[in-house]
Write a structure and sequence with these properties.
The chain is an alpha+beta fold. Helices cover 13% and strands 22% of the residues. It is built from one helix and two strands. A hairpin with a 5-residue loop joins strand 1 and strand 2 (55-62). It starts with 22 loop residues before the first helix and ends in a 6-residue tail after the last strand.
C-alpha cells in the first residue's frame, strides 16, 4: 500500500508486434537503447533511437508471449 501508484495510460498509443520467430525481438533490440530480451511479463522502459543514434522517443515495452 505504500510506494504504489496507478497511472492511466489509455491515451497513449499502443502497438502489438508479433512474429513466429525472433524477428520482432531482433528489430526491437536494434531500435531500442535498452535490452528488450527479458522474461515474459517484463516491462522495459527504453528510448527508441534513429539511424544516427539520436533519441526519438521514450516508451515501455511489455513482453507478453513467447515465439510460436
Amino acid at each position: 500500500r505504500k510506494g504504489v501508484a496507478v497511472i492511466d495510460m489509455t491515451s497513449f498509443t499502443k502497438y502489438e508486434l508479433k512474429s513466429a520467430d525472433r524477428s520482432v525481438l531482433d528489430f526491437l533490440q536494434m531500435l531500442c537503447a535498452n535490452n528488450i530480451d527479458k522474461p515474459l511479463g517484463s516491462v522495459v522502459h527504453t528510448g527508441m533511437l534513429n539511424e544516427q543514434g539520436g533519441y526519438e522517443n521514450d516508451c515501455s515495452v511489455v513482453r507478453l508471449g513467447e515465439f510460436q
